[in-house]
Amino acid sequence: MNMDVDREALLSFVLKARTKMYAAAGGKVESVFPGMDQLEYREGEFLDRDLYNNGKGVFMGLETVYLKERPIWSVSYYGDYRGMTEREVDRILRNALIENQETTRLWRSVRWEHDGYAYTCTPDFEGSIENMAGLEEITKEGKRIYHFLYAGGLLV
Fold first, then answer.
1. Is the separation of the CB atoms in 15 and 22 below 8 Å?
2. What is the mean pLDDT of the chain?
3. How many domains are contained in the chain?
């Protein structure tokens, strides 16, 4: 089944879902897989589902957006926050998301600074919501204390 996707509607939904789930610390639901965490945000015919594992200072997962119950977009990721506490990384990333919505667009270069921390997003190439890969980092006084690798894009 071929499905045309309104890319502007998808982008708008992904930006809103990430703000509602990550920045607002919402969307926690019972996971479909034992031992994993799961976040969800639904609006109209869109559903964003993020399944992830969180270990000792590292995490990895898969975020997928569905339209009419069909997966249309997905991104996989791996993060390492062993240079800081989970609470510290959550606070910094949430502030970066709330203060700069560009942070949710992983295909654009972004730099955000606050309280001695610097957040950067460096894409591997000039991508879009259709195709992206890159690296997020948080540094404190020039030392990297967090990194996040990602790759993903449209499935249809």
1. no
2. 88
3. 1
